[in-house]
Amino acid sequence: MTSAKVLIVEDEAALASVLKDNLEAEGFEVRHAPDGRAGAATWRDECPDLVVLDVMLPHKDGYTLCRERRKAGDATPVLFLSAKGSPEERVAGLEAGGDDYLAKPFHLPEFLLRVRKLLDRSGALRAVNARLVFGENTVDLLSWTARAADGRELLLGEREVGILRLLASRAGEVVSRDEILDAVWGKGAFPSSRTVDNFVVRLRRHFEPDPAQPIYFHTVWGVGYRFTPLTNHQRRARGR
Ligand code: CA
């Protein structure tokens, strides 16, 4: 699974390093450019999924840089960071082609949340999270299609995809039937928890080498399920 790439253009080394560490801890791939000129080159060459762009920069300010890339047809989402938080500055940032604006100093959680939102909106995160691979099974969570280990092409239903998405996002954890019902059927819907079991049986038929002895979709008796996205290598190491 590849991760989304974030470019930070920021001349304050200490701030850049904090942002980089935190984004990396969230699983992003991060590039840093310390001034406007280096920022322009890295932006052009590395095709980031998101640019975190300081406004006051040596060689070329953030607004100019953003305007230039927009003129070149570049639609990469831009989050401006600026020490000036006035409404006029925000407007200037948005006019320069920015998608969001955060005034310094800011709280890291807010920064990370805005980064995620921008990436989510642009589809970069969805693209990254769209493919689920376990063993020789590949699931496309956007088109609801899958290729099973034996080469069968499958069309999945909404509930099957919902359960897969939830279990995969919590891989290795026990997820209760109630949590699955809430997340996939919605709060206030009351199908019996047997319904969840029936869907898991279907997922096993689709994807398990031996549905009677699951290696991916484990039952945790009395509670729910745990998904183990074994790689091919791990699967073979277990002789399955
Ligand atoms: Ca600066």
Q: Kindly report the average pLDDT value.
A: 89
CATH topology of the largest domain: Rossmann fold
Q: The biggest beta sheet, please? A: 5 strands, parallel
The side-by-side strand order for the widest beta sheet comes to 2-1-3-4-5
Question: What is the straight-line distance between the termini?
Answer: 23 Å
Oligomer: single chain
CATH homologous superfamily designation of the largest domain: Response regulator
Q: Which CATH top level class of the largest domain fits? A: Alpha Beta
Write a structural description.
Strand 3, helix 3 (62-71) and strand 4 (78-82) form a beta-alpha-beta unit. Helix 7 crosses helix 8 (177-185). The chain has ten helices and twelve strands. It has two domains: 5-128, Rossmann fold; 135-237, Arc Repressor Mutant, subunit A (Orthogonal Bundle), CATH 1.10.10. The chain is elongated, with a radius of gyration of 22 Å. The longest helix is centred in the middle third of the chain and has 15 residues, at 108-122. The strands form three sheets. It has a five-stranded parallel sheet, sandwiched between helices. Strands 6-7-8-9 form a four-stranded antiparallel sheet. The relative contact order is 0.09. The protein is of the alpha/beta class and 240 residues long. The chain has helices at residues 13-25, 36-46, 62-71, 87-95, 108-122, 124-129, 158-169, 177-185, 193-207, 232-237, and strands at residues 5-9, 29-33, 50-54, 78-82, 100-103, 131-134, 137-140, 145-147, 153-155, 174-176, 217-220, 224-227. Bound molecules: calcium ion. Calcium ion (CA) binds at residues 11-12, 54, 56-57.
